[in-house]
Write a structure and sequence with these properties.
4 strands; globular; alpha+beta; Alpha-Beta Plaits; 75 residues
């Protein structure tokens, strides 16, 4: 298994419940290891995942399908 990280920038302001909901939905995706927001950077979602099981584009689409304006950082 290989592990890679991506960062997703979410434009909207997210409260704690919204951040938890996004993290929980990401955990349901096969191959996602660790989705997390860091304190003070609530617009940035870091996701560690196995690129053999899922793709960065699928993770971005999951965020967007929840109704958020989101982009991959650095891509």
């Amino acid at each position: 298994m290989s592990i890679t990280d991506i960062m997703i920038h979410i434009k909207e302001t997210l409260n704690e419940d919204a951040r938890k909901s996004i993290e929980d939905s990401m955990r349901k995706i096969n191959g996602v290891i660790s989705p997390r927001f860091n304190a003070g950077k609530e617009h940035l979602l870091m996701i560690a995942f196995d690129p053999e099981k899922t793709r960065a584009a699928a993770l971005l689409e999951e965020t967007r399908s929840a109704g958020y304006t989101a982009n991959l950082v650095g891509m």
